[in-house]
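Researcher: Can you fold this with P-hydroxybenzoic acid in place?
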Amino acid sequence: MRTQVAIIGAGPAGLLLGQLLHKHGIDNIILERHTGEYVLSRIRAGVIEQVAVDLLDEAGVGARMHREGLVHDGTQICVDGVRHRIDFKALTGKTVMVYGQTEITKDLMDGRAAIGAPTVYGAQDVALHDFSSDQPRVTYRVDGQLHEIACDFIAGCDGSHGISRQSVPPAAISSYERIYPFGWLGLLSDTPPVSQELIYVRHQRGFALCSMRSPTRSRYYIQCSLDEEVEAWPDARFWDELKLRIDGEARVCLVTGPAIEKSIAPLRSFVAEPMRFGRLLLAGDAAHIVPPTGAKGLNLAASDVRYLSQALVEHYHEKSAAGLAHYSDRALARVWKAERFSWWLTTLLHALPGSAFDGKMQLAELDYLFGSRAAATAFAENYVGLPF
Ligand code: APR
Ligand code: PHB
C-alpha cells in the first residue's frame, strides 16, 4: 500500500488533519489502534475557540455544531461564594462554542465516511520506520496479519501515550512537564445546567467547575486528591460537595440527578520539542498536554493541524518546503502561550495544599483580574483563543 500521508491516531487531531488534506487532494490513510466506538466513548472538555470553529467549518464538518452548539459570550468566576463575570464579547468581540468533543469526533468520523477516505480501526503493533529518510514506512497488524504502508510523511496524531513520540530517539527530543498535586472528579448528568454560562469556582475546599453539553445535559467537576477512588464518590456525595463550593444562587438553581459518567483525571502540563523529526510530524496530544482548566486541549490540536495541513499543501502544491521547515516553531509558539494560560488558571483557582501565602496571592490576583480591564481583556483574549 502507498499513500502520501500516513496518519497515526483517529482522535480529533488525526481526523481533522485527514479531512483538510483530503480537501486539498492529498491522499491519506488513518491507522487507529482502537475501535470507533471506543474512541467515541471518551469524554473530554467541550469549549471550542472561534478559530477552531472556523477550521471545522473549513473542513466541512461544522453544520451540526452550529445547529446544536451553544454560543457563549462570557464566563463566570466564583471566588469564595461571590460570582464575577468576564464578558468575552465586550472585551474581545469574540465568543466561544460549547459543544462536546465527543460530538466533534463523531462529526469528523461521519465526514470521513462521507468522503470515503480509508481508516483502519483495530490496527495493532503500529511501527514507524525510516522517517529520517525520504521514504518512510508504517507497519501494523490486523487480525495477526502484517501490513505495510509506504508514504511521504507520517503524522503522529496518536495522543500522549501513542507510539509516534516514543519512536523518536531520546537524544533528539526534549520534554518539559509539571504534574499538579490534585485531580478532577467529573460527573455527567442529564440535568439542566445550573447557569447559562460556565462557572469556574475557587473555594477553600477546592476548585469546582459547572459546565454543560446542552440545555439538558450538564458536566460538573470538583478538585480531588490524587489518591481518590471514583467508587468512594456515590452521586449524593458528589452533589453535596459541589454544593459546598458553589455560591448561594447556584445552590438554589442546581438540579441534581443520576450520573451517566463519573471519572477522575489527573492534571498535567507537558510539552515535547521539537514537533518535527525528518518526515515525522507530531500534532495534538502526541506533542503536548494541558491541564483542562483552560479547555485548550482540542483547540491546540486544531491549531497544530492548521499549520501542518498548510505546510503539506505548500509542499505538494507550491513545491515549497518553507511551511514544513517552520511547522515546529510555529506550532510551539502557540502551544507555549496556551500552556502558560492553562498553568496560570490552574494555579489561580485550585486549593494548593500547604501554602497560606499562595492562597492569599490567588485572592490578590483574582482581585486584580476583576478590577482591571486590561487584566480581564488578557484573560478573555486567551480564553477565546489567540489568532493562528
Ligand atoms: N497506534 C494507533 N493509534 C493509536 C496508538 C497507536 N500506537 N496510540 C494511540 N492511538 C490512538 C488513540 O487510540 C486515540 O484514538 O490515537 C488517538 C489519539 O487521540 P487523542 O488522545 O484524542 O489525541 P488528539 O487527537 O491529539 O486529541 C486532541 O482532543 O481528545 C482530545 O484530550 C484530547 O484535548 C485533546 C484533543
Ligand atoms: C467541560 O465541559 O468538560 C469543560 C469545560 C471547560 C473546561 C474544562 C472542561 O475548562
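Model: Folded with P-hydroxybenzoic acid in place. The longest strand covers residues 174-189.
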